[in-house]
Give the backbone structure.
Amino acid sequence: MRDDFRHRVYEIVRQIPSGKVSTYRDVAHALGSRAYRAVGQALRQNRDPRVPCHRVVAADGNLGGFNRGVKEKERLLKKEGISVSSGKVQGFEKVAIKPRADY
DNA sequence: AGGGTGACCCGCT
DNA sequence: CAGCGGGCCACCC
């Protein structure tokens, strides 16, 4: 267990299965925090390929951002069976999950 | 020690 | 439906 906020974010995000997504808000909430923005920063600084940061989107279904470019993020999501149109996840409420705090 | 920044969010016009 | 404003919190000068 890392005390680092960043590491906790990674632990959570790592639990998101392929074909599903989560939001910055939910991840923060799973940590018992409201640091939505800090979550984004943590993911931005992440370099570990094990962390599927592309599966984290904004609360309204908007893609948000991505280090390697939103375009790439969109491609990865589509590759996992998630429909993306006009920079937004279609029917995102159905593929979105609420991650649980890590013990 | 203080202030600015951001892969955000929500409510009100 | 689009835009604006205020709020949130960790991280970096």
About this structure: The two ends of chain A are 9 Å apart (CA to CA). DSSP finds five helices and four strands in chain A.
